[in-house]
Model the fold of this input.
Amino acid sequence: MLTKKQKNLLLFINKRLRSSGVSPSYDEMKESLNLKSKSGIHRLISALEERGFIKRLAHKARALEVIKLPETASANDIYNNFSPSVIKGGLDDENPLSDDAEVPVKKMVIILD
Done:
């Protein structure tokens, strides 16, 4: 099982390898995941390698090979960019809440013997 960041990194690496044939740099990976440091990328890559999803090629810079993709990855994940779906909440602009809005309250009476 992969974490969300591990899966996103793996899919990013796979997409970059398919499109350009070259692994992305640590800086490019860092930017794609909105991380602050390269050490986070190093930990994610090490975890992916330990789990058998990628392989680092020795004595070559930027040489990663994707061995397998996660079972939970769909074709949309692998070939398309992520675009979030937004669900509009129940509040609309026509009926804004104000401080003097009335809220119905029901009374409850408890009788103790």
